[in-house]
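Box 3.1 A note on notation
Throughout this textbook, protein chains are presented in two layers. The first layer is the amino acid sequence; the second is a C-alpha cell string describing backbone geometry. Keep the layers aligned when reading.
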Amino acid sequence: MSENQNTPADASTEVTAHGTDHGELVHPERFTDPGVPEHRHRLTDTDPQANKRAERTVTLLFVLSILGTVGTLVAYVMVPPEGGTSGVRLSTLLLGLGLTVSLLGIGIAGIHWAKTLMGDHEMIQERHVTRSSDEARTGAVADLKEGAADSGIGRRGVLKGAVLSALALFPLTIAVPLIGSVGGDWKVSKFKHTLWEKGMRLAIDPSGRPIRAADVTVGSVFHVIPDVTEEYRESHEWITEKSKAVVLLVRLDPQDIKSEQGEGWSYDGIVAFSKICTHVGCPVALYEQQTHHLLCPCHQSTFDVADSAKVVFGPANRPLPQLPITVDDEGYLVAQDGFAEPVGPSYWERLK
C-alpha cells in the first residue's frame, strides 16, 4: 500500500482518538475566559484641562444646533418659496441647511460627550432567564444613578442648559412649517379653470416660443404651455398655473381621427390634450405613433388620441380633456377656448 493510501487511515485514527468508544466526537476543551481587558484611562479622565476643553466643545456643538434651529425658523418666515423657481430653490436650500446644522449639532455633540465625558468603565452583567431579582433591579437603578452622576450633567450647568435647549428647540424645525401649512388651499374650484382662454397662443415648453401649425408635422409631438409674458413665467403663481395648463400637441393624418370631444376642435389633424392623467395626475407623455396611444408611466393608463383620448386600458375612468384649437391670422396655433371640463384626477365634487 502506498504512502498516500495510508494517510486517510492515519487521519481517521487520529480523529477517533478524541472520541468515545462508539466513535462519536466530543466537544473540545473550552477556551479560558479572557475576562475584561485592563481599563485604559482617557485623557479627559486624567487631565482636568482636557476635560474642560471637551465640555466646552460639547457645549459649543449644542449651541450650534440651537443656532441651526433658529436659522431654520428665520428662513421659513423671511424667505418664503415665492418668486418662481429661484425663490423655491433658495427657500428649500436655507431650510435644508438649517435642519442639517441643527441635527448634526445634536448628533455630534452627543457622540463627543459619550466618548470624552461620560464614564467608560467596562461593566459585566450575567444573563438571566426570567425577571431579575429585587437585588439586581435595585443594583441596576443604582448603576443608572451612578452613570448620571458620572456624566457630570448635574454640576455642569452650562452644558445642561445647552443640551436641554438644543433638544427642546429642535422639534420646532419640523413643527412650525408643519403647523403653518396645515390649513392649505382646499378650493377645488380652481381645478375647473386654467390659463387657457380664447385666442391665447400655444407655446413650446419650456422655451415659451409660440408654435405655428406649419411647424407640426404628421406624427410629431410637442409639449405645450400657454403663451404668457416672461415676467409672469418668473412669478410664483406660474408654477401652479403651469402644472394645470400643460398640454400635449400631436398631429395625425386627418383620416385617422375617429372622433373629437367637440366639433371642429382640431386643426388639420392637430389635436391638443391635457397632459395630466385623469387617474392620479401623473404626466401623460409617452406617445406611440403607430397606435396613436398615450401611456401614463405611473399606472399604465392608456388613452387613444385618435378617439377623443378615451381610456383603452388602465385605472383612469375618463378621457383626457381636449383643448379646442385653431390658427390665427399669422398661422400660429391658438386656443378656441379653455378646457370644457376640469383637468386632472376626479375629486369629491366630480366623481367621473
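The CA atoms of residues 6 and 12 lie 10 Å apart. The two ends are 91 Å apart (CA to CA).
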